[in-house]
TrEMBL record:
Boundaries of every USP domain copy: 1-216
GO cellular component, one term: cytosol
The organism of origin for this protein: Trogon melanurus
Single GO molecular function: cysteine-type deubiquitinase activity
Keywords per UniProt: Hydrolase
Name of the gene this protein is made from: Usp16_1
Pfam family, one: UCH
Swiss-Prot/TrEMBL GO biological process terms: protein deubiquitination
The protein's name in its UniProt record: UBP16 hydrolase
InterPro entries assigned to the protein according to its UniProt record, in alphabetical order: Papain-like_cys_pep_sf, Peptidase_C19, Peptidase_C19_UCH, USP, USP_CS
Hydrolase recorded as keyword: yes
Signal peptide region: none
Length: 217
């Protein structure tokens, strides 16, 4: 779907991105890089139908398909609909010659994350005036081993019902207010049939492969 947006607001977000802590090995840095403003120039220029018609006339008059006008443009991927459940999948491999290599670097991630700096200013299911879109961590998948073999384990949080999440999923009502605190509960580490209670600090020090957050606000 192609829509015309006001150039002044097309690249605006719900919250200021300049205030972010962009430590390289952090989930905030990953999200910032994924949603950064990109310039499309040279061979990446955008085909512009308006420019083509302005230069060559209506499309039906263009007999040579090569007669198209390309223009420099800006591109940015932003969230237009904040999900009830936020799933973040970290790319833990990199190309090394003809081989793939496992990336074992620790990526810092918080218990509560604000998605507002990565949402469009016109995010559809955020109440007017809200400048925060908060999520609380409730699950982590960790992979140990190499690209050829390894083992998956999980961290899961046993917690009480999230009423804000229920309202959003069942009734489509956007959360109106919430504290910027994680949902209270007990973390557990699950490895095959072994389940063990662990601290939040243990969870936050894991080498996450998948992160699961539930919406608070």
């Amino acid at each position: 779907e192609v829509s015309t947006e006001d150039p002044e607001t097309a690249f605006c977000t719900l919250a200021n991105r300049e205030d972010l802590d962009l430590e390289e090995s952090s989930i905030h840095h990953c999200l910032y890089q994924f949603t950064r403003n990109e310039k499309l120039t040279d061979t990446n220029r955008l085909l512009c139908d308006v420019c083509t018609q302005r230069h060559y006339g209506p499309k039906k008059n263009i007999k040579n398909e090569k007669k198209h006008v390309y223009t420099n443009a800006k591109k940015q991927m932003l969230i237009s609909l904040a999900p009830p459940i936020l799933t973040l999948h970290l790319k833990r491999f990199q190309q090394a010659g003809f081989n793939l290599r496992k990336v074992n670097r620790h990526i810092k991630f918080p218990e509560v994350i604000d998605l507002a700096p990565f949402c469009t200013a016109k995010c559809k299911n955020v109440a007017e005036g809200n400048t925060k879109v908060l999520y609380s961590l409730y699950g982590v998948v960790e992979h140990s081993g190499t690209m050829r073999s390894g083992h998956y384990t999980a961290y899961a949080k046993m917690r009480s019902m999230n009423n804000h999440l229920s309202d959003l999923v069942l009734r489509g009502q956007s959360p109106q207010a919430s504290e910027a605190e994680p949902v209270k509960g007990q973390w557990f580490h699950i490895s095959d049939t072994h389940v063990q209670a662990v601290s939040a600090s243990k969870v936050l020090s894991s080498q996450a492969y998948l992160l699961f957050y539930e919406r608070l606000l």
